From TrEMBL:
Belongs to the peptidase S8 family. Its EC number is 3.4.21.25. GO terms for biological process: proteolysis. It comes from Rosa chinensis (China rose). It comes from the Eukaryota. Its main location: secreted. The keyword Magnesium does not apply. This is Putative cucumisin. Keywords: Hydrolase, Signal. It is found in: Secreted. GO terms for cellular component: extracellular region.
Amino acid sequence: MPSPEWHCSFAQKSSHPDWSPAAIKSAILTTAQVLNLGVKPIVDETLGPADIFATGAAHVNPSRADDRGLIFDLEPADYIPYLCGLNYSDDQIQIITQQTVKCSQVGAIPEAQLNYPFIFYFI
């Protein structure tokens, strides 16, 4: 049986046929809940706080994702800082992307920030 995320993605595509896969992912991720039904943080198999690899998008909420006001789309180049953040070498990333990459110039982002909103302001 497919996971709830798959059901949600199919519903998103039928509701918004013009959305890209990255836009659908964004709608699902930015509306997911990081607390369980007991309003406590999601835990992993050791009952410790779950990291991004254990929770994925967290608890998917299809009804919220369908009425998402703001989505974050991705281009293939947006994955390069993510790969740098996962500590892939420049050579490894070049094999994946088939282009010259220098993480020292591109920068790196943590795995939890790929396609997540990042807003800041100066006072």
